[in-house]
Amino acid sequence: MADSSSNSICKTKYWHKIDASDKNSRVQCDLCPRFCQIPEGHRGLCYIRANEQQQIVMTSYGRSSGFAVDPIEKKPLNHFYPGSSIYSFGTAGCNLTCKFCQNWDISKSRQMDKLMSHASPEQIAVNAKARNCSSVAYTYNDPIIFHEYAIDVAAACREQGLKSVAVTAGYICPEPRQEFFAQMDAVNIDLKAFSENFYQKMTGSHLHNVLETIEYIHHETKNWMELTTLLIPDLNDSDQEIHDMCDWIIDHIGADVPIHFSAFHPTYKLTDKPGTPLATLLRARKIALDAGLHYVYTGNVHHSESASTWCHQCGHLLIERDWYQLGEFGLTPDGQCLNCGTICSGHFSL
Predict the structure, then answer these.
(1) 123: buried, middle or exposed (CB in 10 Å: 19+, 13-18, 0-12)?
(2) Lesser CB count within 10 Å: N end or C end of the chain?
């Protein structure tokens, strides 16, 4: 449990003094690879981690930018208890600087008065249970930056028999990464592109750190993982980049990890680009399927065929989706295709 000195201030442990002999020296945050060096009384780029009295504290413990009950497919997770409800919440701030942020009014907030809802970890878990949710999502902004709060909520959720789902860009250092994902049950990683140039120019971060997180989750944890890539016209939607991404996924984490290609809508600092055509998403999906990935979806568009789950062995419809509504279900409770018996990877029976 986090050590909170007030309702919203929480001590943290992933930091160090740059010069221990100088009482006025900056303190470096070691939570994510940004490694913000923060002067006394100032905040890091994420905005919710600050230097107070020569130590890094989290300033939004127990405060949320909002709550909602969602279908789990909205996270998006298509292979983690499909059809179940999930209780979603987040805080404010972010450790990336994405020019295309779809939740910029929350993740880029610099006004703490937007954090109006106060909720202890225990309250969140109880509220989720009361609303017949089977899991809680740490989302809207990246839960990595509210690391301590998320971990405490996950512990409270376990006591209520609830699963924990992290929706994250995966930009985190190895030691806090190990602690964070040990508390999660499922994760959707936002793999924003497959070029270092895109990551640097459009997000202010680095691709290799995200790929390390993806590999770590797959090989070192029991988390169910799905990937999402928001395709932006002329920036990360070329055939070659999608080929390279799919080849890396197959080589490093296998063919059974679902990937969602989602449509971009102009917003925030990237309003000069058009929205992503359905044809682009379908082209990316075909490239991924041809490369050997088993479960490839489109998102942010209405297209039932590419939103549905199909058996990679015989082509039988396994889970029909119309937006977030489920239709025909062609799986046994343990995830076998009713037509040929092939296992569909995921978690399908609570």
Answers:
(1) middle
(2) N
Amino acid at 69: V
From residue 229, give the alpha-carbon distance in Å to each of 94, 167, 331. Answer: 18, 13, 27
Among 333, 287, 293, 286, smallest CA distance to 312 is for 293
Distance CA 209, CA 96 (A): 13
Query: Which residues of the chain are modeled with pLDDT < 50?
Result: 1-6, 112-113, 115
Q: For residue range 105-158, what is the model confidence (pLDDT) as tens digits?
A: 665 555 544 545 788 999 999 999 999 999 999 999 999 999 999 999 999 999
Look at residue 106 in the predicted model and tell me its pLDDT: 61
173 C-beta neighbours (distance < 10 Å), count? 19
Predicted local confidence at residue 108, as pLDDT: 55
Question: What's the pTM?
Answer: 0.94
**Into how many domains does the chain fold?**
1
- Report the distance separating Cα 36 and Cα 232, nearest Å: 29
How many Å from the N-terminal Cα to the C-terminal Cα in the chain?
27
Answer whether residue 194 is part of any domain: yes
The predicted pLDDT at position 24 comes to 62
Q: What are residue 321's DSSP bridge partners?
A: 326
Domain membership of residue 336 (yes or no) is: no
22, 67 in Cβ contact below 8 A? no
C-alpha to C-alpha distance for 11 and 61, rounded to whole angstroms? 10
pLDDT of residue 68: 94
CA nearest neighbour of 226 among 238, 235, 218? 218
In a domain, 43, yes or no: no
Surface-to-core class of residue 289, CB atoms within 10 Å of its CB (0-12 exposed, 13-18 middle, 19+ buried): middle
Q: Is the dihedral of CA 228, 230, 235, 238 positive or negative?
A: positive
Q: Is residue 129 part of a domain?
A: yes
Per-residue pLDDT tens digits for 170-210: 999 999 999 999 999 999 999 999 999 999 999 999 999 99
- What's residue 135's pLDDT? 98
Residue 221: which CATH number? 3.20.20.70
